[in-house]
Amino acid sequence: LSRSRMPWQQFFSYGVIVALAPIVFPQLFMRLLTGKDPKTLKQTMCIYPIPAFLMMFLMATVGMWGRTAIPGLEGAESDAILPLLLIQFTPIWMMGLLGAAAFAAMMSTMDSQLLSVTTMIARDFLSRSRLKDASDATMVRISRVLVLVLTLLALVLGFLNPIGIIKIIEFALSGFACMLAPVLAALYWKRCTSQAALWSIVASQVCLWSFEMGLLPASWRFGFLSGLPAIVVGVVVLVAVTYITPVPQDEGTREYFAIFDKTTP
Questions:
Q1: What are the residue ranges spanned by the domains of the chain?
Q2: C-alpha separations of 196 from 125, 230, 232, 233, 241 in Å
Q3: Are 169 and 18 within 8 A, CB to CB?
Q4: What is the spatial distance between Cα 3 and Cα 13, in angstroms, rounded to a whole number?
Q5: Please, which residues have CB within 8 angstroms of residue 174's CB and are 6 or more apart in sequence?
Q6: CB atoms < 10 A from the CB of 227, how many?
């Protein structure tokens, strides 16, 4: 129930990746795109931290309660802590109600993530290459197939390598956190180039996967989680490539930053 057995490097890493990752959740970006006007977007950004905080707080609280009430669960076994608590401490009707609510919440997040990934693949990659002339109906059919394929792929990977949910979340949030630097640079740094953002993403993700797969020695992390050195690598590559590539001169970039120049007092 404390971090007495957790090295400060690991504790610090969790704080960094958990704080940075939600900002670049693709499903959150898609919801922001549905805003009707800037006022709606501002309201969304102001309200979002409240349920996010409550969700994280309740998750941690349930975990601590479960560790006290049902000790000895290790690895993937600890993923069942919520059903075990419901079975042991709640009546049947409440167990069913709370269990259904938990599954509904998980499904809401999962379908948002699947939709986001499918949209990115279909719109940002396929529609700009061989399928650039495809009709909307064709893209919808392709998106449906992608949802099915990605769902089956996740299911197969889950069965092939059943690890604990904490490890999965740690890896996923690390990957998201690596995306924050290029996203912020693209939005607010005039000098940043598309090549720099791309290579920053590639370098940070390669670093993260290399640590997780054991291709890089764990000693190079100095006790931190894999995501933290990956973030540092991504930032270094972002800055380096930005200054060795030409300054962006396209009209779209000038128009984009001109909006900020007009609104800045």
A1: 164-264
A2: 19, 15, 14, 12, 5
A3: no
A4: 13
A5: 17, 21, 208, 225, 226, 227, 228, 230, 231
A6: 30
- 111-116 long-range contacts (CB < 8 A, ≥24 apart) are 112/27, 112/30, 112/31, 113/26, 113/27, 114/147, 114/150, 114/151, 115/27, 115/30, 115/147, 116/26, 116/27, 116/29, 116/30
Residues in the chain with pLDDT values less than 70:
1-4, 75-76, 130-131, 161-162, 164, 260-265
* Rounded-to-integer distance, Cα 148 and Cα 152, Å: 6
pTM: 0.77
Alpha-carbon span 48 to 52, nearest angstrom: 6
Q: Determine the residue type at 183.
A: V
